[in-house]
């Protein structure tokens, strides 16, 4: 988290709102993203077809899956894990046309996993509405060994690949869905800055 | 800004109103490489005054021995196209800018729909070469008034085969944007170039169907319109000048000896944007670059096409 300047690659997340002009709607959410889905269901419901994919998570604040299933059972399919949901999404995407609006909600890691699937069929980052829910946990890409470390909550994290202590920068790769991590004690090994939980 | 010196190697009358010009470099060397959809700005000396008009390059990007542009004669315009038609001969020398591309094919596209109206076909001719070379899926939809106005139809049929579709208004063939843009696969991008009402209708249809903005591309070069004369003060250079009714604000600034930034000179690219310090009247915006909020805000002006209705406008230049 850097305050003195703004890194343009850092994604900006918003609140999900139905697009009035659309030919269809696709909602993909996970865990605490269930709250964003419930907020969508509170809004004036679209006249076009809605297809939803919801991934249950034991870490979510509430059992959103049950609430969503009771409110919109025909539109939303519930999955036990992300892989199953993304496989089902890929099958649905084959029948989608231009004019389909995309809404994604959940942790940052989940959002960019979905974005990667959507990119494979030509849906661009800017075409997708994204709401970050539940946690600010970051996925980190180690610039030294290129390993990915998931769920980093602190300003410095140990790399899952090379064990180096990585400072997490705001530079974000949309292709990798991860922030840049740099060895923080390269000049003076063992001398670390104070480590704080900034991504709860 | 550096320029290229070219001479006219050939002129071809394509239709009643359209002439095609072939340029080669004056020193016989190859011209700079460009990508499909690029344009150049021609500097035309008309009665001692320099007119700068943008034209799309329609020759193949694979062959830079020459550049090709096509010009439709616009009787109601300020004279650039009439000058090209009546005064420019084989052997004439013209100064042009390096090619600039404000209308390129999206590298992220999975399919491309090109829509042309009339002379708006020109940027697509160089784009088609790129699309064929990259083996990208595309279709071209070309609408024009009547059979005699269908410039380059044979060339397009040869280049695109079944991917080209023609709509001749006099034969009652109408291009239905809603029908065309419905049911297109994800990852499709649409590009339109043509008369303003057509461009606007296409964009409106795409938005109405829920197409995201990043998938909608258009190129509209606006010719500077004549208007009432007004005074300009350049705050930084401390120069006062008058913009005559027949001249654009950018041209008047250049005439006063100030090297103002510009690229497209058609209100499309945003390069010439100036901050307005004050204006004792109103700005008449003609560009396609500023947002509506910026236009109403009155703090910015694109001097290549826009004017002011005032006694004096002060800009930061």
From TrEMBL, chain A:
Q: Where is the Dimethylamine monooxygenase subunit DmmA-like N-terminal domain?
A: 5-128
Protein known as: Uncharacterized protein
- NAD: present as a keyword of the record? no
One molecular function GO term is: oxidoreductase activity
Record keywords, A-Z: 2Fe-2S, Flavoprotein, Iron, Iron-sulfur, Metal-binding, Oxidoreductase
Q: What is the lineage of its organism?
A: unclassified sequences, metagenomes, ecological metagenomes
A Pfam family (short name) is: DmmA-like_C
Q: Which NCBIfam families match?
A: mono_DmmA_fam
Presence of the UniProt keyword DNA-binding in the record: no
List residues of the Dimethylamine monooxygenase subunit DmmA-like C-terminal domain. 140-181
Organism of origin is marine sediment metagenome
From TrEMBL, chain B:
Pfam families linked: DmmA-like_N, FAD_binding_6, Fer2
- Does the keyword field hold Transport? no
Keyword NAD recorded: no
Q: Which residues cross the membrane?
A: none
UniProt KW keywords: 2Fe-2S, Flavoprotein, Iron, Iron-sulfur, Metal-binding, Oxidoreductase
Tell me which residues make up the 2Fe-2S ferredoxin-type domain.
230-317
Residues covered by the FAD-binding FR-type domain = 1-106
Q: Which GO terms describe its molecular function?
A: 2 iron, 2 sulfur cluster binding; metal ion binding; oxidoreductase activity
* Entry protein name: Uncharacterized protein
The organism's taxonomy opens as: unclassified sequences, metagenomes, ecological metagenomes
């Amino acid at each position: 988290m850097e305050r003195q300047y703004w890194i343009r690659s850092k994604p900006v997340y918003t609140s999900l709102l139905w697009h009035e002009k659309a030919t269809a709607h696709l909602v993909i959410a996970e865990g605490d993203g269930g709250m964003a889905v419930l907020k969508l269901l509170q809004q004036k419901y679209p006249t076009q077809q809605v297809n939803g994919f919801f991934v249950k998570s034991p870490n979510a604040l509430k059992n959103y899956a049950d609430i969503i299933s009771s409110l919109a059972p025909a539109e939303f399919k519930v999955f036990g894990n992300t892989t199953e949901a993304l496989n089902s999404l890929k099958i649905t995407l084959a029948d989608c046309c231009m004019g389909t609006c995309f809404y994604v909600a959940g942790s940052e890691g989940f959002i960019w996993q979905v974005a990667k699937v959507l990119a494979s069929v030509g849906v661009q980052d800017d075409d997708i509405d994204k709401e970050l829910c539940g946690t600010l946990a970051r996925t980190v890409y180690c610039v030294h060994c290129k390993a990915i470390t998931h769920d980093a909550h602190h300003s410095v994290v140990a790399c899952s690949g090379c064990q180096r202590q990585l400072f997490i920068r705001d530079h974000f790769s949309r292709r990798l869905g991860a922030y840049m991590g740099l060895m923080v004690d390269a000049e003076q090994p063992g001398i670390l800055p104070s480590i704080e939980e900034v991504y709860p | 800004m550096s320029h290229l010196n070219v001479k006219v190697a050939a002129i071809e009358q394509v239709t009643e109103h359209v002439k095609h010009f072939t340029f080669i470099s004056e020193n016989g060397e190859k011209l700079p490489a460009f990508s499909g959809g690029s344009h150049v700005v021609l500097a035309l000396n008309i009665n001692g005054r320099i007119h700068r008009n943008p034209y799309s390059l329609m020759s193949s990007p694979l062959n830079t021995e020459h550049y090709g542009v096509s010009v439709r004669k616009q009787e109601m315009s300020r004279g650039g196209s009439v000058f090209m038609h009546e005064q420019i001969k084989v052997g004439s020398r013209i100064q042009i800018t390096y090619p600039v591309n404000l209308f390129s094919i999206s590298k992220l596209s999975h399919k491309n729909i090109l829509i042309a109206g009339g002379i708006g076909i020109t940027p697509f001719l160089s784009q088609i070469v790129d699309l064929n070379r990259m083996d990208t899926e595309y279709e071209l939809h070309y609408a024009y008034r009547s059979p005699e106005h269908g410039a380059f139809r044979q060339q397009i049929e040869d280049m695109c085969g079944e991917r080209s579709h023609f709509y001749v208004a006099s034969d009652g063939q109408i291009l239905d944007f809603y029908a065309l843009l419905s049911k297109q696969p994800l990852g499709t991008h649409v590009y339109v170039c043509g008369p303003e009402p057509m461009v606007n209708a296409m964009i409106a249809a795409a938005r109405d169907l829920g197409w995201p903005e990043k998938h909608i591309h258009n190129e509209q070069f606006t010719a500077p319109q004549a208007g009432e004369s007004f005074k300009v003060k350049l705050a930084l250079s401390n120069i006062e000048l008058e913009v005559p009714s027949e001249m654009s604000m950018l041209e008047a600034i250049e005439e006063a000896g100030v090297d103002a930034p510009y690229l497209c000179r058609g209100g499309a690219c945003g390069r010439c944007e100036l901050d307005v310090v004050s204006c004792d009247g109103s700005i008449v915006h003609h560009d396609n670059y500023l947002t509506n909020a910026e236009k109403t805000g009155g703090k910015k002006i694109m001097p290549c096409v826009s004017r002011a209705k005032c006694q004096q406008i002060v800009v930061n230049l």
